[in-house]
Amino acid sequence: MLAIEWICATVIVAAISYLLHEFLWMKKRKRLPPGPKPLPILGNLHLLGKNPHQDLFHLAKKHGPIMYMQWGFVPAIIISSPELAEKFLKTHDLNFASRPYHEGSWYVAHEQRNLTFAKYGPYWRNMRKLCTLELLSNFKINQFQSMRKRELGFLIESLKRASSDQVVVDLSGEVSSLSANMSCLMIFGKKYMDKDFDDRGFKDVIQELLHIAAIPNLGDFFPFLGVLDLQGLTRRYKALGKVFDDFLERIIDEHVHQSSNIPKQNRDFVDTMMSILQSGEADFEFDRRHIKSVLIDVLIASMDTSATAVEWVFTELLRHPHYMKKLQEEIDEKVGMNSTVEESNLDGLEYLDMVIKETFRLHPVAPLLLPHESIDDCIIDGYHIPKKSRILINTMAIGRDPMVWSEPERFFPERFVEDNVDIKGKDFRLIPFGSGRRMCPGMHLGLTVVRLVVAQLVHCFDWKLPNDMRPNDLDTNEVFGLVTSRANHLMAVPMYRLKE
Ligand code: HEM
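That is the input. Now the predicted structure with protoporphyrin IX containing FE docked in place:
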């Protein structure tokens, strides 16, 4: 059959199934949450544009904080208030602790054997425990403290040169490279540069994965269309899966040959995982496939999240120079003009924490968290939540809700002086790392990197916008993806300010 015939046949089958589904559903219709009226087959997919978190924010203003949508054949529940977020992520957490099918993880992470998209069950529980204890513990985070200091030192030196020449730097690019280097050193024990992956180079391959992971996948919403691969995504995921697999196999082999009895405090993540594999101490199915899947997870999760958070903090500080100054004054007082910031200084920097909280409120790195999936039918606030619904918690909508925050659109770190809101998953007004069973296990590491990098860059340099741009003219356009970053790179001129 020709491709066009295949498409027609699939659309007809899809339409019949949809009508059948609607008919059966009518018979036992239950009270669903309110939401926009769906079109036949397409459902509400036509309402989602390039920045779905913003579209859902606007739709919630009309339909309310719990909203039902039909995305193709998939029911979606969108949550936009702290009270409801608490019901989904705390009161009924267990029922919403699974993840939907994710084609990228299927092909790149050995059939969703990664932590991020593994279905809820014994494998996910065991792997999460292992990662939390062995890779993301305080002991492990502290082990890499000197590496972080050294890498950040390299960036400061290069910015000092830019400062003496008064050149504009690509702050987004610089922080992203720093974060990539820190992640590679922690995970693989060395930095990976261009050509280390395949012809395209390390960064390009990661960027391609992030890019296609952000493209809405028709196969996710219309399972019949998945096999046709009309968007070419399956083909690209398979090719990327092979590139990652070859790369990780090579790295693991190198580690196996080099490492015999590396002391625990010197082990990178590959060493740690391989020593667990070799010792046989994992009491669940655990082989190279699982190790490779989790290595990809921590690589992707650590590289872009922290760098994007730093980028947003700087965006707001450059738009509000008086807050930048106030932050400098706090650090000058605690650290002094003769020294750079150490991780041991961070706990005393309260204003820094307020600036970071305020940035997460306005610019959460993952505005819809990661998608959760309901394990069983459930009733919440009198509404029926069907089994296998996709649950999205819109933290961006919660962060800008005037019922929750006064003057929500205003960047105002001082709002946290009186109200010391927790960002570690206990206060549902601000949950940039999620909450409950699926909450981010890398939060401590992520926060350490963000606080350190922001503090150091603000302490060592005054910053000004290029070409006499006024602070108000700096845009805050975003591009939605696995992480939601600035649409345009942040450019600024550093001026060194410490005593030599
Ligand atoms: C500023 C930095 C970071 C932010 C804002 C962030 C945010 C998040 C969010 C919102 C989720 C989804 C929670 C949910 O679905 O309910 C998540 C999950 C996750 N994060 Fe992070 N993250 C950061 C850094 C890191 C780092 C450094 C790592 C590891 C090295 C990491 C590893 C993970 C993993 C493995 C998951 C999936 C957990 C699971 O499904 O069980 N993250 N993160």
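DSSP finds 19 helices and eleven strands in the chain.
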